[in-house]
Amino acid sequence: MKYLILLFSVGFLPLCAQTAKIIRGPYLQNFTASSGVIRWRTDVPTESRIYYGKKGPEKNLMVEDGGLSTEHELKITGLKPNHTYFYSIGNLEKVDNQWFQTLPKTGSEKAIRIWALGDFGTGNRNQLLVRDAIKAFMKEKPIDAWIWLGDNAYGSGKDVEYQKNVFDIYQSDFFPNTKLWPNPGNHDYKDNKDSKKLAYYQNFTMPTDGEAGGVASGTEAYYSFNLGNVHVVSVNSEETSEDGTSIIDSTGLQAQWLKKDLAANKLPWTIVYFHEPPYSKGSHNTDTDEEMTKVREQIVPILERYQVDLVLAGHSHSYERTLPIRGHYGIDASFDTSKHVVAKESKPNHYLVDKIKPQGTIYIVAGSGGQLGKSQPDFPLKSSAYSTVALGGSLILDVKGRKLVGRWIGSDGRVHDEFSIQK
Ligand SMILES: [Fe+2]
């Protein structure tokens, strides 16, 4: 009887499913403490099916979609928080080392590791070195969230560029088990100004209903999520808002949502990231660039109002970390340490947050994950605590309880900058 059932099942499988190959993914999207989305692409249309389970080879649970497609996207629900699951995609490829870990519950003080990478999808040697430096570094602790700071796929954010310069490069070591939270850069918008048609929006699944934490944004252009006791906000610095205003207008739809989202946040840590930095003397100059000036004048006051701890950006192909600052909306020459630095150090680069007088915000440009650029003649910023354009690298943030440690890992595998905030 068992034999007959097996014959019956195989006989009704679509013929193409038996020969299909995975040509992209699997990759992890929109993960929470209880659910997550896994996506992949096949060379010919097939059904979508994922086997998963707690004990590696057993994989006794399954989700599926019987429709035939080359673009596969399945949501798994009912997962336990902070648990590791192993999975495999349909019957296509037996890969037993594929796993994902759900996030801890919101508010949990479990240690969280974030990898922030900017301006990377070039296919150049620096991109590979930066990747390999993190691969070695993460052996001691895996990454809980992989944050992209924009300009993900050069030169125009086309799907073929995403394949060659992003998926092919990070697939074996990162995509199957690293939860990704993307942000678009100006290069990701060059393919098509109509955002719905961009490869960026076709390729990724972001939370729009507040399902990962925070206030529902109603759009994939900007969104927020929680990682344990860290609230993270992905702000868009690139497209035109749905109401026709600049998306970085302080009264536009995005800013209205941002204010609501930050006001509702009760977690002790807040990190905001977007592509175009408010402060940089790297390959772009925030004194003269119109868009970056707008970010500084329109968005920075909102971030300060809600005491955001850390702001991450790319765009300039440099690493630039400011002191904790507040109230500086003019050009770099107008920066005054005695007026704009709001910080208390336990020792250099290690900050203690005073409950009575909260510290300023630290702004970091980490845009040398692939691209490497020149700097302005007056590099670094007057507000700089540490900056370099000498080599590429990316940023690792470790948050545990009331302590945040940031380390910038160079393409040589060494830690070149380290800072901490203790609350
Ligand atoms: Fe850029």
TrEMBL record:
It holds the Pfam family Metallophos. Gene3D superfamilies: 3.60.21.10, Purple acid phosphatase-like, N-terminal. GO terms for molecular function: acid phosphatase activity; metal ion binding. Residues 112-319 form the Calcineurin-like phosphoesterase domain. InterPro entries: Calcineurin-like_PHP, Metallo-depent_PP-like, Purple_acid_Pase-like_N. Keywords: Signal. The keyword Signal applies. This is Metallophosphoesterase family protein. It comes from Aquirufa rosea. The lineage of its organism: Bacteria, Pseudomonadati, Bacteroidota, Cytophagia, Cytophagales.
